[in-house]
Amino acid sequence: MTALSETIKRLTEQRAGHFGQGSPTSRLTDLGDFGSNPGTLAAKIYVPSAPAQTPALVVVLHGCTQTAEIYDYGSGWSRLADEHGFILLYPEQSRTNNANLCFNWFEPGDMRRSEGEAMSIIQMVEMVCREHQVDRKRVFVTGLSAGGAMANVMLATYPDVFAGGAIIAGLPYNVASTIPEAFERMRGNGLPSASILSAKISDASPHRGPWPIVSVWHGTRDHIVAEANANAIVMQWRSLHGASSSSQLSSVSEGNHRITTWEMEDGFIPIELHSIDGMGHGTPIDAGSGLGSVGPFMLDVGVSSTAYIARSWGLTPTFEKRSHSDPHQNDALPERPKPAPADGIRGVIENALRSAGLMR
Q1: Confidence band (pLDDT; 50, 70, 90) for 87?
Q2: How much is the pTM?
Q3: Cβ 323 vs Cβ 308: under 8 Å
Q4: Of 145, 215, 289, 312, which one is the catalytic site residue?
Q5: Host H or E run for residue 157
Q6: 63-76 pLDDT tens trace
Q7: 345, 339 Cβ separation under 8 angstroms
C-alpha cells in the first residue's frame, strides 16, 4: 500500500518539473463576474478569432498545482479551438480554497448540485452560453486528476447541462467526503460496488436521462491515482446507460493506447475507456503533433488525448481545419454526439501521415 506521505512526495516532485518547450504564455482572458460564485472560484475563457455562429463549449478543469494557463499550454486545447471554432471555459482554483490548487471534488459542500464549487462552475457555463450564443446541446467537460474528479462531479450533478465528459486520471463521483478518504480512494482502496456507484449519480440530481457520454483515460503506471478508479468510473456510468458487460463492442490497441468501448443495440457508444500502457499520472499528449507541450503532469506518450476527445465529441469531424471563410462548416451535429469507431482508425492514419511528413 502506498503511504500518504509517498503520494504527497510524488505530487511535489512532479510539480517541480519544467515545461520542455518554453514557459506557458497565456492565451486566456478573465471571464469576469459570473454570479454569486458560492465556491469562490476564478474563471478564464478562450474565444477564437472566428468562432462558429453557434459554437460548442468545452469546460476544462486543471489538475492540482496547475493553473488554467498552464493546463491550456500543456494540453493544446486553445490551439485546437482556433482551428475549429469552439469556445473554452477554464474554471480556476485559488489557494484560499485549496493550498495545492486542487478542485475540492470530495468536499460535500462543493460536490452537490446548487452548492459550492459545482454551482460556481455551472454559473460560469450559463454566462458563457448566454453571452456567446453557445449551442446548449454541445456543452462538454474534461479535466485532469482532481480536475477529472471534478469533471465527474459536474456530469453527475448537472447531466442535463453536459452532452459528454472526459475524465483523465480522475475518480468516481461521491466516494469520499474527507481528506483521508480522498487519499484512500486515490490509492484504489474502499471503492464501492457498481450498484452503489450508479446510485450515487442517480441521487445527485432529478435528471433521469438521456445521460452524458463518458470517456475515461488512465495510465497503467499511475502511482498517484490508482487505475482501479478508471474501472470504477466506467461501472458508475455503465448501468445508467443500460450498457451491460455483454454490450462491450471490443478492445482495440493502437500501440500503447488501448480503447475499450461499449455499444448499444442502435450503435450508440456511451462509454469509452482509454488505457495508456506505461503512462504515469497526467494528461496524454503527442508533442510531435504540435498540439500540446511537455511539462509536469503533461506526458508525451505519442497520443493526444485533446485531439482524440475533440474528435469523439464531433468538434473536429474531419482531418481538415475549419475554414475561417466558412464559419458554419461542421456545425450540424447530432443532439448527443456518438463516438464513431472509425475515429481510432483515423488516429492511426493521422500518426502515420505525420511520421511520413505528409501532415502536420
Answers
A1: very high
A2: 0.84
A3: no
A4: 145
A5: helix 146-157
A6: 999 999 999 999 99
A7: no
